[in-house]
């Protein structure tokens, strides 16, 4: 059984999609990051970085409970555990390259673009421009790579496609006020739509819908999400 620590944001969404694609049994454990539940000692024992997603595999190697945190690490772990969505052995270097491109580039720059356009104080025009333009540059890299291709790596659907889908699903926030956020990137738009119509995507989107996650953006939420912006308690 997989215990899946979840909040409805792009990185946990990737894991929800993999679990639904693979048909793995899992127990959903909501972590309301707007309430600061990610900072609780019990969760920090699973992910010392205090971020979702994280999993605990109750049937890990040698039958021991195994924690895994960071969405890319979780995708690799679960793909290797199940033997699913890894592509062919000869595609392994390419798979790892694109997974780490997504983990170190598309994800962080998309996240910062969203932060500076929606959450940061007004007047930080340089940061807004920097992160949005870098996110769009990553879109262009992917768009160029996907010319004449259906999937990110090889000829089959892999965890690289799942990883890309998580943040591309938020393109309307990354490219705030764009009428057609993936429109300038036709290969990327076609790729996203190919993944987005898979039946498991609808199931992944439904994960956690019955949990009352906090939606009010008050001071508690700001302190919970951005604790480094506040001085430590005396």
TrEMBL record:
Q: Which residues form the GST N-terminal domain?
A: 1-86
Q: Where is the GST C-terminal domain?
A: 88-216
- What is the recorded name of this protein? Glutathione S-transferase
């Amino acid at each position: 059984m997989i215990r899946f620590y979840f909040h409805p944001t792009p990185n946990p969404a990737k894991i929800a999609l993999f679990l639904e694609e693979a048909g793995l049994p899992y127990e959903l454990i909501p972590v309301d990051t707007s309430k600061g539940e990610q900072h609780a000692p019990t969760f920090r024992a699973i992910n010392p970085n205090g971020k979702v997603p994280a999993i605990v595999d109750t049937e890990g190697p040698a039958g021991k409970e195994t924690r895994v945190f960071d969405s890319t690490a979780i995708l690799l772990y679960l793909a290797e555990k199940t033997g699913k969505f890894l592509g062919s052995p000869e595609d392994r270097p390419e798979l790892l390259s694109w997974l780490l491109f997504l983990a170190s580039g598309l994800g962080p720059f998309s996240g910062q673009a969203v932060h500076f356009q929606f959450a940061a104080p007004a007047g930080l025009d340089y940061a807004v421009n920097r992160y949005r333009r870098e996110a769009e540059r990553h879109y262009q890299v992917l768009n160029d790579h996907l010319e004449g291709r259906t999937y990110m790596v090889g000829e089959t659907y892999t965890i690289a496609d799942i990883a890309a889908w998580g943040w591309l699903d938020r393109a309307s926030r990354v490219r705030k006020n764009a009428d057609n956020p993936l429109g300038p990137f036709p290969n990327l738009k076609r790729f996203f739509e190919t993944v987005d119509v898979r039946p498991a995507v609808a199931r992944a989107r439904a994960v956690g819908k019955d949990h009352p996650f906090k939606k009010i953006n008050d001071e508690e939420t700001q302190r919970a999400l951005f604790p480094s912006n506040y001085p430590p308690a005396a």
